[in-house]
Amino acid sequence: MYGHATVAFAKTFAAFTYVLVLSLFGSEVAAHAGPSASGADNSALPHHRSHECATPSIDRLQQWLASGEGTTVPASGSLLVREGDKYAAKVKFLNAEWHVIVVWLGNQFDAQADLSTSSGFWLTYSATDDLYVQLRPASHWSGGDKWLTLVPSTGGKLVQRFFSFSPEKWTWLPELGKPSYSFASALSEARGLVFVGKTPNTLDFRGLPIDGYQPPCR
User: Fold this and answer.
1) What is the mean pLDDT of each run of 10 residues along the chain (218 residues)?
2) HSE-up of 203 (CA within 13 Å, CB side)?
3) Which residues of 102-122 are buried (b: 16+ CB within 10 A; e: fewer)?
4) Which of 42, 105, 107, 141 could be cross-linked to 113 through a Cys-Cys bond (beta carbons 3.0 to 4.6 Å apart)?
5) Pairing status of strand 131-137 against strand 80-83
6) Considering the entire predicted model, what is its pTM?
7) CB 33 within 8 A of CB 190
């Protein structure tokens, strides 16, 4: 009889302790519980977000711009819009033509970042179709002949994915031209990440932290 009472007490105490731990650390436990339900690659998620800038920014990146290339909404200017207590960068690609969206890594055009020791970046986004992201260096900014990697469609769902800076993960498109410089040199003088796509698309960007790099607020 006493044995049964002891077991029952132990179970009750264990349940109480579990509830107490969840109430105190629930959000932290959830954050490290494992892959998200979206199925995105969360194998290397950042442990915490950097402090945002005083002006609108996403992971301290203040310049998310529609370049005016391709038919987009908005047609030009900043993509940043208020989303709760944070900001999102939202844009629509409308036609079957190349569209160009620019993110300046140093928050001004003539700045650049050395990403040669960075493992890559995390992107929290939704997209209704595939697109690409180019790594554009300061010395070869213009033109389409850039190193790029696929940014897969999410079917309109918000997901987080890691994009590695390993050279084998980056390629080029014959339609846009082969880069005349190495991928390693592009990493060492990175001016911007440029999102390009040739199909209608609805895009929503919520996060873009870069391993080992903190953009300066301007």
Assistant:
1) 44 42 35 35 48 97 98 98 97 98 98 98 98 98 98 98 98 98 98 98 98 97
2) 33
3) bbbbbbeeebbbebeebebbb
4) 105
5) unpaired
6) 0.79
7) no
